[in-house]
């Protein structure tokens, strides 16, 4: 029970990191270190500059996959992720630390930060595809926004990215359209 809930929380945080990194890289405003630190990657603050640079290069290569998730059906997404997984170096183990109960680490603590992050992102995505397919990945409904989001709501009601302006301007436009037609 505890294993499942801890792992679910970590997967959710990691999926949020995928979305934020993909949106950031697409729009040239990615804060790789800050995004990962905010999403519970404990080594992010201390990671070397070289490690962040290597990681950013790999993330740039993965951004096309991440940003396509809302448009891919399950078999296409699985085929693409499987291709990326063939290059992944992992050595899983179950660990408890910092008051967090048993959960899986995909790489040993001695591994480089960039390999650790890459393994975490792709394995979280692999688990999400097995659990839900691509259905929880969406694209912002605002007409001038292309950002993707992960919809963790129970009834899958999310329509907009994390930018609150997208929701408010779309609601204003919809309201005006209703007034015109009424
Ligand atoms: Zn951990
Ligand atoms: Zn948006």
Describe this structure in words.
With 182 residues, this protein is mainly alpha-helical. The protein has a single domain (2-181), classed as Jann2411-like fold (Orthogonal Bundle). Helix content is 56%, strand content 9%. It has helices spanning 2-26, 32-38, 49-68, 74-85, 113-132, 164-181; strands at 93-97, 100-105, 137-139, 148-150. Strands 1-2 form a two-stranded antiparallel sheet. A two-stranded antiparallel ribbon has the order 3-4. Strand 3 (137-139) and strand 4 form a beta hairpin. Helix 4 packs antiparallel against helix 5. The longest helix has 25 residues, at 2-26. It is elongated. The mean pLDDT is 92. The site of one zinc ion has 8 residues, from loops.
